[in-house]
Amino acid sequence: MRKLFLLLLLANTKLHAEVKLPRLISNGMVLQRDVPLKIWGWAAPGEKVSLLFSSNKQKAYSAIANEKGEWSVILSKQKTGGPYYMKIEAGNHLVIENILIGDVWLCSGQSNMEQGMGARLKYKYAEEIATVNNDHIRHFLVPDKWNFRDPQTNVESGSWKAATPQNIAEFTAVGYFFAKELYAKYKIPIGLINAALGGSPAEAWISEGSLKKFPAYYDEMQKWKDDKLIGETESRDRIAGSAWINELNRADEGIIHNWKAAGLNDDDWQQVNIPDWPGKEKKASPGVHWFRKEILVPASMSGKAAKIELGRMTDADSVFINGRFAGTTTYQYPARRYELDKSFLKEGRNVIVIRLVSNGNTAGFGPAKPYELTCAGDTIRLAGNWKYKQGAVAASNSPATTSVRNKPGGLYNAMIAPLIPYSIKGAIWYQGETNANYPDNYQSIMETLVRDWRNKFQNKFPFLFVQLPNYMEAKQEPQEKSNWAVLRQQQLQTLAVPYTGMVTAIDIGEWNDLHPENKKEVSHRLFLLAVKLVYGEKKLVASGPLYQSMKAEGNKFIIRFTSTGTGLITKDCNELKQFAIAGADGKYKWAKAIIKNNTVVTWNDEIKEPVSVRYAWADNPEGANLYNKEGLPASPFQAGK
């Protein structure tokens, strides 16, 4: 009787089993052209799954789910086209509609890849956002998740969305402009899978097996498989952080005495200059800092929607206008841009108040950024004199937190592993800012990552990446130590991995912003690499000059480059800058440099026996001007002993 009951239960389970699909395989998906296509999912063990694909090679497929309920079919190669539909039947019936066949690109890395067309970029690319309408460019946003235990088989959310004004905000900006140029040139549907996460180190994107090459990273991953440890760590950090901010709020004179009020008497407040506060050689104590500025608003701006820009701030700000809350940002990197509805501004006297919480002694404002109020074509400049008073001094810096999500292997398991059965054309990668804190092994990490992904996807796909741009203050003398320069060198050396390409971005960063806004030029240079390496236009010059070799002749170095195109030039027609050489003492000095016979000859008369040379070797090598005639900059490099 018991056996009969179990048989009936099994039969009933199979009868009512529902075939399920991963979220990637869904309405609006873009499938990779010209390769066999794996379609997979889950059903009851032993259940037959039938699939019909309505392409011009309409064909029926079937599979039997294994003992784990897993099934898959391999579709024959498909040409560019669509829209098509797919019918899948088992215990239930599914229809996937609006399928396109084209090229699928995986977009990964950290914040400069993750950064969407919305948020802070909506001002720079406002016209693009308002007018975009291309159903043949589609985007799938992988949710930000991490898992240290096992590679995941599906993502928790996500759907394919076309490039329209309603959807474009969540598109990776680098990916979108890359796809736009590819589509304009080849008229091939482009699918973008956006699996990127701000602040992530490269080792977080590598599988457990491949991490064994790095014992410290591998051991760290094992440690964080303990869910109890994760829970306790996150709880401890949350409690400590809340206690710190709560104590600060309780002590804040600005909250107690309502310093945001428009009518406050601030005659005894200190006069300061924004964005220069607290001054180059000064440090502000951790705590709460209040700033007030009175402005006169003309009748032409009164009662109208406006926008206020307040550069960047370290660390968390809240902005009030005439006593009303206008906006907040909780960490230092984003630009402070707040939209004001028509009820905020009035004719005559208006008061802007900033409450700035500093986690440490690095409080301040980002220089050379817009500080202004704009409305109906009018602008009120906000840089300059403000009133200042400290509301509370923290007893200590804010407690450090553990970035669990950035531990090795976790992002691979949750954000890459679920994608792996999906066929892709290639990957574009923008990352390295986090690893610049410990840059010496970056080449090895990236070589491992590229090979790891290719092995898992079973596809030697092209891997195109962006070298770190110029960032931070420029130095007048050769920079002896620069983690960003070391990491750029590691990236340059990663080109030793076959079928890779590197965008040199040393001229399109922003010295005062970790997230430069010119994503369009980054994408264009990725596009050039793709056109040459992937789409077969071999004669195209797709890169700036790359160091090849050098030889010494007396006190001179003669340096050869690849990717010189139709010739080396100085972009500004001035003498070459940012070359430095060193003798046996290892001390670098600025060197003279000239272009001769499509090589660079460089020397310093004080160094009779040079042993090494650097070009653009600095955080922000201001004035680096070696290019090819095609307008692409030379990569920074170091060569010699």
SSE arrangement:
Layout: H1 2-16, E1 30-32, E2 37-42, E3 48-53, E4 59-64, E5 70-75, E6 81-89, E7 93-109, H2 111-114, H3 126-131, E8 134-141, E9 160-163, H4 173-186, E10 190-196, H5 208-211, H6 215-223, H7 227-251, H8 253-256, E11 270-274, E12 287-297, E13 306-310, E14 313-314, E15 316-321, E16 324-329, E17 337-340, E18 348-358, E19 364-365, E20 371-375, E21 378-381, E22 384-393, H9 410-416, E23 426-430, H10 442-457, E24 463-466, H11 483-494, E25 500-503, H12 519-533, E26 546-553, E27 556-562, E28 568-570, E29 579-582, E30 588-590, E31 592-596, E32 599-603, E33 612-615, E34 626-628, E35 637-640
Helix pairs in contact: 4-12, 10-11
Cα end-to-end separation: 83 Å
Number of helices: 12
Shape: globular
How many beta-strand segments?
35
Structural class: alpha+beta
Mean pLDDT: 95
Uncertain regions spanning at least 5 consecutive residues: 1-16
